[in-house]
Structure formats: C-alpha cells, structure tokens
Amino acid sequence: MASDNVKRIPGPEILSEEAVSYKPLEGKTVLLGITGGIAAYKAADYSRKIRALGARVIPVMTDHATEFLSPITFAALTGEKVYTDLFCIEGAENIPHIELAKSADLFLVLPATANIIGKAANGLADDFFSTLLLAFSGPVLFSPSMNPAMYAHPATQKNTERLKTLGYRVIEPGKGETACGDPGQGRLAEWPVVKEAILKATTLQTLKGMNVLVSAGPTREYLDPVRYISNRSSGLMGYAVARVAVRRGAKVTLVSGPVSLPPPPEIKLYPVETAHEMGNTISRLSQEADVIIMTAAVADYAPAAKADQKIKKDTPELHLDLVRTNDILSQLVKSRKGRQIIVGFCAETQDLKAQALKKIKLKRADLLIANDVSQPDAGFDVPNNRVLIVSADGDVEALPLLHKEEVGERVWDRIQDLFPQDDC
After folding, report:
1. Least enclosed by CB within 10 Å: which of 101, 279, 293, 339?
2. Which residues does residue 345 pair with via DSSP β-bridges, in sequence order?
C-alpha cells in the first residue's frame, strides 16, 4: 500500500487562513544556477519562493540561459547581481567564482540540462557557471529538465549516476507531457519536491538511521455506504512532523486518514479510513519504528453496526448505538519494544493543561503535544498551531503561535533530547 501504487482517499478541504511567518532558510545563501532550458521560466518563480523561505538567492546564468530569460528578470526577483561572465572586469580583483563559492550554503542547478550534467560529471570548467561548480565545496542539487528521450539517453543516465558518486544530489524529474509535447520523464520537479530537497540539504542529519512512524489526519466511521462520523482534522500537523523528520535524515512511514494533501516526498504512505484500519496498520508497522508519533485525530466512538444500504429518513428520529474504538496510543505504549519513543497528540476545547497532564499520566507516553482546537487561529484546518509540550515527568513547555512546520521542528528537538546518549 505504498504511495506509488494506491489511490489517495479524498478528504476535507483546508481553509485558507494566513500562515504565520516561517523562514527555515533564514541566514542561508543559495546559489541558483540557471542553464539553457525552457524550464528556466520556472526558476524565476522558484527564486521568489526560496527567498520567501528566508534565504539570500544569488543567480548564476549560462550564456544559453540568457536566451530564455534576461538577467534583469532574476536581478529584479532576487535583488542581487546576476553572474554570467567569467572574464567580467567589474569585480575581477575579488575573483568572483571563488568568493561566491566560499559565501554560499547551497548550490541549486535548476533547470539542469544534459549539457551541464555532462560537464559537471566530468569536471569540465569552461565558463563562469561550471568553474563555480568546481570551486564550490558545499551541497549541490541538480534538478534535471529536458526532453524524455534526452534524459533516458545512456550518456545522460551515466553522467547523472556519476554526479551521485561525486557527492552531488539529483532531484528526480517528474513524469508527464514536456514542453515539446513528448510524454515521459523529464519535466522539472514541482516546487514542493524542490523545496523539500533544499531544506533537507541545508538541515543537520540528526535523525539519520532512524525509522519513524507518524499517523495523521482524521478517521471516518461509517453509518452506511454514504454517511460517516468524522472530525475537522486536516492532517497538516502530522504531515509537517513527517516532513521535518525526513529533512533531518529519518526514514519515515506515514499512516494517513482521508486528507486533501499531496504525499510528502521521500515518505512511504499508507492511506486508511477507519480507526480499525489505522490501528491495524500502525500495529503492524510499529515493530520496525524507533519513534512513533500519533498526531492523527482518531475517532473515539464508531457505530455499533454499519447499514448495508443508505439509511432512509422514514422516521422523525434516528437513534445510533456507538461503541468505543481501540485506544491506539495506549496499545502502542503497552506493546512498546526496547527503547522505542512514543509521542501522542491531543486536541481539547477547555482546560488544556489539566487535560494534557491527566492524559499523559493515563497513557504513559514519553511526550504529549496538546492543542486547543477551539481557537480560530490555530489547530484544525489552519497552517498554524499553538501547543503545550508535556513530558512524562509533568514538565510543560508552552509554544507561541507558530507555523505547523516550526511546531514540528520544536517537537523533534524535544524528542531528540530523549534519545540515549549513545544514539546521538
């Protein structure tokens, strides 16, 4: 049931509320290398998005790239000088390709043509761009974009594999119809994929070698083939926790109820619907997990019986018998293996701190993340959250209103504090 061979279950629409500021690339400098491909126009859009994450973006263009977009475009979008000429007199005394190489945290080549891939794979340096690549010692990301036949050519494939052996990272191009109309693999990766590759390349790999299991989203408990009991969970918090774990180097498995979110890159996804399905799936997968984080809003009650056909409105009143669903978090704690770390989430509408302290004592998780879902600016359906992080010893840390991905970062910081010293 991995993400590449299952159909996503549709979920509730996410309300468009304004997110609080989140700039994970604050203080970072990204060299954006644009080469001569039609996807250069997307590099202009991506440059703005990288800046929005807090980074300084310095554009470097090949001569062929300037045939597709003017350097003025990138200068206006980034607020930086655009570098194109290896023998430019202006600033020559500072040896720009060396100074730039020393000043940046990441080099993103986007789009990466077959030509620049071939040059880099073989150490060629005949212009400013390729010379800068050789001088740069930090992480380099290549995002290929070309005709599918060109990408599939043995020479391109060999050069791409050689890039990886040299320590460069390659963002796999997407599949579909390319600019020339030919179908296949060769489309520039979409922004969410590129964004995650950038963030992973600039994040310390503190979870490398760890297996992480995350649950997310709501469950649906069916009354009949049409109607069900559910809740407002959008899955945003769980997906954010999963993405942060991938950025830190973990191998992540995500068990998700019905949501309207795309599968995060580099994550094995198991879509489920009911609490029963979620419990069975998590129980099966938990044996291999070092850390389990239960962010899913699992239904506490389900109909005692599901009607085979749609229930008709034949009577003025309808009475339902509900039964308790299994408490997945408590079951995980009871069956935990070794030094497995288990984290729970709880949603409340009143007495948040008191309820959280009561629940962590009852469920015996290592951490409990509590949020008040009655607030309009946090919790369900919105990109922000305001939570309490409660530890098993009763310590309570209150986080201010943050973007859910930043909440995910803070949660992972606390989880890592629980690791045995020989695992750090």
Report:
1. 339
2. 369
**Residue 118, H or E segment:** helix 114-121
pLDDT at 346 over 90: yes
User: How many residues belong to the chain?
Assistant: 424
Domain count, the chain: 2
Residues 352 and 242 in one domain: yes
pLDDT digits (tens, 9 = 90+) for 312-329: 988 888 899 999 999 999
Dihedral, CA atoms, 401, 403, 406, 412, nearest 10 degrees? Answer: 80
Tokens 């503190």 belong to: 206
CATH number where 152 lies: 3.40.50.1950
- Classify residue 204 by burial, with Cβ atoms within 10 Å: 0-12, 13-18, 19+: exposed
Residues with catalytic function? 180
Between the alpha carbon of residue 123 and those of residues 136, 142, 152, 313, 364, the distances in Å are 12, 15, 22, 74, 56
According to DSSP, the β-strands at 291-294 and 341-348 are: parallel
Average pLDDT over residues 54-64: 96
Q: Of 182, 201, 220, which residue is a domain's last?
A: 201
**Whole domain around residue 282: which residue ranges?**
211-423
Q: What tokens were used for 72?
A: 């003025």
Asked if 193 and 245 sit in the same domain, the reply is: no
